[in-house]
Amino acid sequence: MEGTVPTAVQRTLNNTFCQQISLNFTGKFLPPVYILVCIIGLAANGCGLKSLRQNWKKLGSVNVFVLNLGLADILYLLTLPFLVVYYFMGSKWIFGDAFCKITRFFFNLNLYGSIGFLTCISVYRYLAIVHPMRVKGRITVAHSVGISVMVWMLVSVQSLPDMFFNKRFGNKPWKCYDTTSTIYVEDYLKYSLGWTLTGFCIPFLIILGCYGHMIVFLCCTEITDEVLKRRCLRLLCILILLFSVCYAPYHLFKNLNLWSRVLSRQKNCRDWFNGVYIAHQISRGLVCLNSALNPLVYLLGNEDVAAHLRKRLQQTHQICSCLNLSNSGCLPVAQTADEFEPELRC
Fold this sequence. Notes:
- By secondary structure, the protein is mainly alpha-helical.
- The protein is built from 15 helices and no strands.
- The chain folds into two domains: 17-300, Rhopdopsin 7-helix transmembrane proteins (Up-down Bundle), CATH 1.20.1070.10; 302-346, no CATH class.
- The N and C termini lie far apart (84 Å).
């Protein structure tokens, strides 16, 4: 009888905790990613906002959304040093429960604010290209400001419930969960699924519809503006990159990881729990990359900036080619800006 007690206790523990999850992976993987994203993101957003200021009149009403996109990135990037300290200290949060929730709130504000403003930019470009006469003179900067305020309000209201979920481990104040503790995981999964539908799936379908119709329109109509076609294709590629690398994996594995926690709490163990947990942590690193990739929307979306980058890349390529062939008697030939003009107009 006594010998069966430890066995029963061990079985209960196994059913409660299931297989051992590689929790140490998070502390090793996320801090270097956060440091890299913080440095690159602040530099890229700084350059992007500088380019935006220089081309404010040229970009039109869309620049209001681009400005808000940059502000959303910077708000989140400024919280990354605190998360780096958190993971370097062995997942011990020393900045207080309130600031923990504010940090997580800024992450959600950046994530869904970015998706919202990218959706607005896509709709504006769609209207300007496919229905130019209908919207000519009807869309002003005031409209863009009003829509931006609405996006901030909707994202804030959508993210606010997250702050009411417990971010700690019981009564111990040193944890700062990105979702919530195991006690409330069932309710958080329902909230997360609704969040995924309204904050990710619907905007993604709108963006696909806008750019899909734009590409068909540009290919089927007699439009000779190659710059316009190139810009649309470039923005479409950037958005596909953002959604396929940053946004889609995060939402998929976040919900799968929450589901695995629900099953584990119900003492229903599966072999894939550890793999899903690691995939979720990798997706967390990937989703924060959106703050470093978002500036591409206004850096490469601006033809002047894109032409300048191409010119610099061509000059670098010419220098490297001559350096590689210098042993064979190649002499560098001075390149002028005029020699690159035909390429810039392609």
